[in-house]
Design a protein that fits this description.
The chain is mainly alpha-helical. It has one domain. It is about 95% helix and about 0% strand. It is rod-shaped and about 85 Å long.
């Protein structure tokens, strides 16, 4: 027969494992979001820079 302590140990390990997976997944989502933010920021800066260059050419 399986003792209560054994069941508690297995439950604790399962819970700990699921928390580790959630932490890793959360970190992954955070990194992906930060990467997208930086990429979007770079695109906006390039668009603004090209717009400024185009307006300078028109003014001349």
């Amino acid at each position: 027969m399986v003792s209560g302590k054994r069941i508690a140990d297995v439950g604790y390990r399962l819970f700990s494992g699921s928390m580790m997976l959630l932490t890793v997944y959360g970190g992954y989502l955070c990194v992906v979001r930060a990467q997208r933010y930086m990429q979007r920021k770079k695109q906006l800066e390039l668009a603004a820079q090209s717009e400024n260059t185009a307006s300078e050419i028109i003014k001349e």
